[in-house]
Amino acid sequence: MDERLRRIVVQGLAVVEDIVYAGLGFVLAIAAFALLFASLKSFMTAVFARDLPTQIVGLLDQILLILLIIELLYTVQVSVRERGLLVEPFLVVALIAVIRRILVLTAELPKLPEAGGTVFSHAMLELALLTMMVVVLVAALIMLQRLTKQRQPDRS
User: Fold this and answer.
1) Residue 114: is its pLDDT beyond 70?
2) Using CA atoms, how far apart are residues 65 and 68, in angstroms rounded to an integer?
3) pLDDT by residue (tens digit) across 119-153?
4) Which of 27, 59, 102, 143 is the most exposed place for a label (fewest CB within 10 A)?
5) Is 153 helix (H, G, I), strand (E, B) or coil?
6) Which domain holds residue 97?
7) Is 1 exposed, middle or buried (0-12, 13-18, 19+ CB in 10 A)?
8) Is the same domain home to 128 and 147?
9) pTM, whole model, 2 decimals?
C-alpha cells in the first residue's frame, strides 16, 4: 500500500470515528434530557403527593444516573478533542457508577434484614467489594494525576 492510499484510508477512518462519536454524543444528550425530565416529573409528583421521603432513593438513583451519563458525554467530548482515549474520564465514570450503587444499596439496607439472611449477606459482600473498588479507583486517579503533573514541564 503506497503512502497516498494509506493517508486516504486513515482520513476516512477518522471521519467515520468523528461521525460515530457525534452520534454517540447526541444519543447521550437526549438520554440525559429524557432522564432529567423524568426525574423532575417524579420529584414534583412526590412533592405534591407528600411522598418525598419514600421516593427519595429512586430520585437519588435517577440523579446519579444523569450524572453518569453527563460524565460519559464529557468522556466522548474529550476523546473527540484529544483524538484518543484518556484514562481519567473513564475512571471518574467508574467511580460515579460505584458510588451510585453504594448509595442505593445503603438506602435499601433497612429493608434487607426482612428479605432474609442470604440476601443480607450478599448485600454486605457487595457493599464491601464496592468500597474496595472506590479505594482502588481513587488511588488510580491520584496516581494518574501525579504522573500527569510529573510529565508536564515546569513553567516557573
Assistant:
1) yes
2) 5
3) 788 888 999 999 999 999 999 999 988 888 887 76
4) 143
5) coil
6) 86-156
7) exposed
8) yes
9) 0.68
